[in-house]
Amino acid sequence: MDTKTIIWQDFGPTTSGEIYLYNESGITRLTNNSVKEKDIQLSGSTVAWSAFDGKDFEIYLYDGIRTQRLTNNSFDDYSPVLNGNRVAWFQWNNNQENLFFHDGKKSQQVTTNLEVNNPLILASNLVYEQTETTGNISLKMYNPTTRTTRTLSSKLIPESVAPSTNDNVVAWLEDNPENDRSTLKFWNGSKTVTVADNVLGKRIALRSNKLLYTAPPKVYKDQSNNGQLFVCEVNDPSGKSTQVTDGQNDDYRGYYGVPNMIEDRKSTRLNSSHSSVSR
Fold this sequence. Notes:
Blueprint: E1 6-10, E2 18-23, E3 26-29, E4 37-43, E5 46-52, E6 57-62, E7 67-69, E8 76-83, E9 86-92, E10 97-102, E11 107-109, E12 116-121, E13 126-131, E14 137-143, E15 148-153, E16 162-163, E17 170-175, E18 182-187, E19 192-199, E20 205-207, E21 210-215, E22 228-233, E23 241-243, H1 252-255
Antiparallel strand pairs: 1-2, 2-3, 4-5, 5-6, 6-7, 8-9, 9-10, 10-11, 12-13, 13-14, 14-15, 16-17, 17-18, 18-19, 20-21, 21-22, 22-23
């Protein structure tokens, strides 16, 4: 979140949860009505939310100057995800959830009658998790310019994706059938690079082209759960990593969550009933 911008809802005795924005220019009231607004998201000075129009929920976008209604249909649109003026959201078509994406200019339907979760917006592309008929989880990347979808992983560990919002780089973890650890990979915009096959824990972080993860120290040759912090420069096509901590102590718990690099994000988990989608 932009630390200079704050959004909130006012549930006063005469209001229905109106949305307000505060920044250096002061307080701006974004809504003024008697309908329900929910799923509010902030990116910089841009705000997205879902609002009831009297029949169903629709998606709205405030770009810092004006509010635009992105959807106008007879179905519920909800759970927007925001990066700048790009928005992804789900729509319930009375049978299944479908994923949509607004690239800042136009809106497109991304999926049709598929079980998908956790959409994340990169610089221009959209990534999301898809549950296959086999039960495996795949990581998909959608390109709105070509309207094509690429499979980045077919054995994704759910909720392990770390996106870069400034470019189209994304990292993730896969199950490693040879041990109880995970394989770390990233997409650098043109190809998939494998970083390590001995990652401890399920959390990684990607910030400023630096990919952080936890693995056993090199000196023990993977025969230890003594976790240490490693950094991989995603601009390096080789995927080479550097051990940051000294490996002399059991730093597994201290570095497991990569606290200085992780930004907590809420997970969009879809349930069998669209009315109970949680964030």
